[in-house]
Amino acid sequence: MGMITEKLPGYIEPVPGGSVLLTSMDKLINWSRSNSLWPLTFGTSCCAIEIMMASGAARHDLARFGAEVTRPSPRQADLLVVAGTIVKRMAPRLRTLYEQMGEPRYVMATGSCAISGGPFIYNSYSTIRGADEILPVDVYVPGCPPRPEAFFYGILTLQKMIKLGETIRKPGVRKKPVLAALPPGVTLDQIQKEMAALLEKDAVINLDEANRLREEWANIKMAGNEGA
Amino acid sequence: MDTLRLLGAITALEPRAKQKENTDRAAVEVPVDAFYSLMGRLKSDPQLAFDMLYTHTAVDWSAKGEGPGEFELVYQLYSMTHGHYLLVSARIPRDNPVAPTVSPIWKIAEWQEREVYDMFGVLYENHRDLRRLFLEDGWNGFPLRKDYKDEFMLERPE
Amino acid sequence: MSVHVSTLEERIRLQRTDGSPLATQEYFVNMGPQHPSTHGVLRLVLRLDGETVREVIPVLGYIHRGIEKMGERLGYRQFVHLSDRLDYLSALSNNWAISMAVEKAAKIELNDRIQVIRTIVAELQRIQSHQLWWGVFGMDLGAFTPFLYGFRDREIITDIFEETMGSRLTMNYIQPGGLMFDIHPNFVKRTKDFLTYFKPKLVEYETLLSENVIMQERLRGVGKVDAEAAVSLGCTGPVLRASGVAHDLRKLEPYGVYDKVQFDVAIGRTGDCWDRYWVRLEEMRQSMAIIEQLIDNIPEGKHMVMKPAAKIKLPEGSTYTHLETARGILGVYIVSDGSEEPYRIHLRTPNFNNLWMITEAAKNWRLGDLVAVLSSLDIVVPDIDR
């Protein structure tokens, strides 16, 4: 009982005969919603193997996050994980699936094809450049394909967002995350210049410094490593 | 059968077949009106016995040379019993791309021809069910042609 | 006194005043692009008579990305990266097909180390692909445990690949001219540990699924395709070998070092679902035998014979090269005009031909058998649509 009550949102008041939990209904409902997300089995290409299948299998276990119940019917699911490339022919079907899901519903775009079109962005006449051209997306998980651990990070982020009540928002409003998160007064150009300077600095190796550090570390004797 | 004997046998069957240059396996080029009968004999002749059609595709040669250009229909054949390969190609004019279907000979040709129709616009006579395979039925244009224009396509910036 | 036992049909006939038998009607049902057991976005329009399937009409194009058109604007090394994403469960074999085509046309000579490592890695990929197929096959027929077993054992190979190549699924490792990286020092030991681990597991697989009476009833005699129909449909790989045709490119036109190892090729007899199942399990055993013969004797040498940043120009003309992936024969037809980008590149994918077998194999079987047949064909849909 102690572990569960630690994680419940609210305040526990011990009274003679037991305890009383004081919380707000919203917090309790959001907490229970986030801990039992039911994904829709929707995978079009390679990401489906890593995201849907390898995450649900025994090694990376999706059941620990409460999300292993994948329902094939959109009426019974509340999380749409877009895993794989979306093509012009598939886009209306995806939109239909999304609209058939009951509110509150969440969308996670996993893999670079669902974020921006991925490797098929140039010279392709039928790849849609990102699932957010047709759906409002809550969480983006990058990778090609993303590791199951990256997918779990996305699930945890989504759970945090649900607990904070951030996903009940106006329908039809969608923003690309990078532009939405820019602080005021900063442009994309400035960020790109900064990143280029940083990468250049990282790529230039000072050999003398590196050799000096290597000798220094070779002389450190760590406790318990005498025989190594 | 090695390449020389194979080509000899084919030119005996169809005198208008010429050997194609610059290929790695045995290849012949046939004019399109002799095409269908040659394909039937390629399968039924016991010395040749080409019973598997590996692939059928087309090449658009309009970007090379002047004029409206040609499509080259390419068929890669293989014989299970003898183990030899043959590439048969036929050229058809680009502004009237009509060719006979070989689906009565090899069953898979029905769908490979639908794919070539979808991508290039080649019309096959007597095809059982000629419609687009990959793109929607109402798509405008044939994507793998060299002059296919589409505002949706994004060019890579240099 | 005798008791008259009636039947439902008699009962219904008694109710009808015009005496005509019960009329039925055929109807079309859509097994849509989003479906738990279509292995990707494949849409099947079924013409059903009650529960019996009379006709299967596959509708494709839901993952058609236009890879062949993109290939006309990419160099060959860039195209290898795209070839990973065709049949992503045998990604290394796809890379090898493109690399082999480019090397044959540009006449690049490789050393023994590269060929041996390519063979070992391709056979590991074949085992991995069949493990996933086995798991999903069991899941499609209603058993969830094979899925967990298959993935548990698959993760060991994924770890070996990740240590050497950096990626779990789309590796982009076999390049024209050699390999992207040299193998990790742990590669040999971990592969040998995997072989000792997996041999008893295959026995476990047999006890779990193959000897199960439900599997035997559902698979034996279902979805028979005879050799002539299979050849006419151009099927290759385990699907063709299950119909009794002895055609394996690793024996007929050896590439890599397949001519220097001893292995058998599994051939089925009747071409039903059981034969397709059994052929793949046997292929896993033979792949393990191949790896065992090669893993201790990897020759020394460089892992790349060509400078990595070289732009490859193929001579003018056309080439057709093919090899045997886990699902069948992948062929690459390149027409080059002497520049760094192909004029036309066409991929002959194994799943394209294997899919159309469903129109023959599932006729007049029930809906549950359709799922078994579709799953035994082992289809990966992005390979069909490219």
Description:
- The complex is a heterotrimer of chains A (228), B (158) and C (386).
- By secondary structure, chain A is an alpha/beta fold.
- Among the domains of chain A are: 39-149, Rossmann fold (3-Layer(aba) Sandwich), CATH 3.40.50.12280; 188-227, no CATH class.
- Chain A has 9 helices and 6 strands, in the order αββαβαβαβαβαααα.
- In chain A, the strands form 2 sheets. Chain A has a 4-stranded parallel β-sheet. Chain A has a two-stranded antiparallel ribbon with strand order 1-2.
- In chain A, helix 2 runs antiparallel to helix 6 and helix 3 packs across helix 6 (148-163).
- Chain A starts with a helix and ends in a 10-residue tail after the last helix.
- Residues 168-175 of chain A have low confidence and may be disordered.
- Chain B is an alpha/beta fold.
- Chain B has a domain at 3-97: NADH:ubiquinone oxidoreductase Nqo5 subunit (Beta Polymerase, domain 2).
- Chain B has helices at 3-13, 35-44, 109-120, and strands spanning 18-19, 27-29, 52-60, 70-78, 85-93, 98-100, 123-125.
- In chain B, a hairpin with a 6-residue loop joins strand 4 (70-78) and strand 5.
- Chain B is globular.
- Chain C has 386 residues and is mainly α.
- Chain C folds into 2 domains: 8-59, no CATH class; 76-385, Orthogonal Bundle (Cytochrome-c3 Hydrogenase, chain B), CATH 1.10.645.
- Chain C is 47% helix and 12% strand.
- In chain C, the strands form 3 sheets. A 3-stranded antiparallel β-sheet of chain C has the order 1-2-3, with no helix packed on it.
- In chain C, strand 6 (317-324) and strand 7 (329-336) form a beta hairpin.
- Chains B and C meet through strand 3 and helix 3 of B and helix 9, strand 6, strand 7 and strand 8 of C.
Key structural traits:
heterotrimer, A: alpha/beta, Rossmann fold, two-stranded antiparallel sheet, 6 strands, B: alpha/beta, Beta Polymerase, domain 2, 5-stranded mixed sheet, 24% strand
Order of helices and strands of chain C: HEEEHHHHHEEHHHHHHEEEHHHH
Fourth CATH level, the homologous superfamily of the largest domain in chain C = Cytochrome-c3 Hydrogenase, chain B
Largest interface: B-C, 36 and 38 residues
Structural class of chain A: alpha/beta
How many strands of chain A?
6
Strands in their spatial order, largest beta sheet of chain A: 3-4-5-6
What is the rounded distance between the termini of chain C? 71 Å
Q: Oligomeric status of the shown chains? A: heterotrimer
